[in-house]
């Protein structure tokens, strides 16, 4: 089996004409799934089930991410029936993807995996509610924002710590947390030109924390002012600081790979972190020092 096999299996459940015609789906969590699949392959008690466990985890993650794409404002703001249908299909598709995991695992008799993943989903919903409340109350700082994003990406995968043994039981939580953090920072770097999306992003919270009261007002009242946005991006050097954070996290992730006891596994995982290393690049030490 190749590393792409899990994604191929998942798309058998995800490819529906109705969904393709009327809505869109989130990106497949390729990196985290490949990471999980590779590490499970090193566990004697889980190696034979690594394909199934990776498949159901991908379906749950896609289901959760699909629900996160639901935006009732698009229908309320004049999108009409197409927009409403798209939102409804996101809800139904998310429920369907998430529900398939129970069916697949129960058929295979994996009751413990059902329990662990169900508990993880419950905890993720709690985190989302906390994040939502902090967002609307403007109680976040940029590091907290990254931490919440990291928790939401890593939560399902952390539930597999109980399947790990020896060194992997100790390394896995840090490995999936650091990998997820790199994913969050890379996403934030790619959307750094827009500091004012609904709910904010790292750039928004960084300027909100570091900026003046007038600049905070501009973030909320003049979000369409391209000139003002560019001024703030340049003033606070947000791209350099984000890249520096990514560089730091990617270097820590690289160090974790060095602790693994399998050269074969290390070689298999190295390509997964190359995009983080490349995007982080070599940044001035001053950018990291300023961020603390």
* Count of discrete alpha- or pi-helical segments spanning 4 or more residues: 14
Helix percentage range = over 70%
**Helix-strand string:** HHHHHHHHHHHHHH
Determine the structural class based on helices, strands and strand pairing: mainly alpha
Q: What oligomeric assembly is this protein in?
A: single chain
**Percent of residues in β-strands:** under 5%
Average pLDDT confidence is 87
According to DSSP, the number of beta strands is 0
What does the largest sheet look like? none
Low-confidence region ranges: none
What is the global morphology? globular
The overall number of domains is: 2
Task: Kindly provide the radius of gyration, computed on alpha-carbon positions and rounded to a whole number of angstroms.
Answer: 20 Å
Distance between the termini: 44 Å
Protein name: Heptaprenyl diphosphate synthase
InterPro entries: HEPPP_synth_su1
GO biological process, one term: menaquinone biosynthetic process
Pfam family, one: HEPPP_synt_1
Description of the structure:
The N and C termini lie far apart (44 Å). This protein is globular. It has 292 residues and is mostly helical. The longest helix has 37 residues, at 72-108. It has 2 domains: 1-109, no CATH class; 111-292, no CATH class. The model has no long low-confidence stretch (mean pLDDT 87). The protein has helices spanning 5-14, 17-22, 30-40, 50-68, 72-108, 111-136, 142-158, 167-190, 202-210, 213-221, 226-235, 238-257, 263-280, 285-291. The chain contains 14 helices and no strands.
């Amino acid at each position: 089996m190749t590393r792409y096999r899990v994604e191929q299996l998942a798309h058998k459940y995800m490819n529906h004409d109705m969904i393709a015609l009327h809505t869109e789906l989130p990106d497949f969590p390729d990196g985290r799934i490949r990471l999980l699949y590779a590490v499970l392959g090193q566990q004697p008690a889980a190696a034979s089930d690594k394909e199934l466990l990776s498949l159901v985890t991908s379906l749950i993650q896609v289901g959760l991410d699909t629900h996160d794409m639901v935006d009732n404002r698009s229908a309320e703001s004049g999108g009409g029936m197409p927009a409403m249908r798209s939102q409804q299909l996101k809800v139904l598709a998310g429920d369907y993807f998430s529900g398939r995991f129970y069916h697949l695992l129960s058929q295979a008799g994996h009751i413990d995996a059902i329990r662990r993943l169900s508990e993880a989903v419950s905890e993720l919903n709690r985190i989302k509610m906390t994040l939502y409340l902090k967002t609307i109350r403007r109680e976040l700082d940029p590091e907290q924002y990254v931490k919440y994003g990291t928790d939401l990406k890593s939560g399902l995968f952390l539930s597999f710590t109980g399947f790990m043994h020896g060194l992997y039981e100790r390394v896995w939580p840090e490995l999936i947390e650091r990998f997820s953090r790199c994913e969050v920072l890379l996403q934030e770097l790619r959307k750094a030109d827009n500091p004012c999306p609904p709910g904010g992003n790292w750039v928004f919270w960084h300027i909100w924390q570091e900026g003046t009261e007038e600049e905070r007002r501009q973030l909320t009242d003049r979000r369409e002012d391209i000139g003002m946005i560019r001024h703030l991006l340049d003033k606070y050097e947000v791209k350099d600081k984000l890249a520096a954070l990514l560089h730091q996290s990617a270097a820590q992730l690289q160090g974790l790979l060095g602790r693994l006891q399998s050269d074969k596994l290390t070689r298999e995982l190295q390509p997964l972190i190359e995009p983080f290393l490349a995007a982080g690049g070599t940044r001035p030490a001053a950018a990291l020092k300023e961020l603390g």
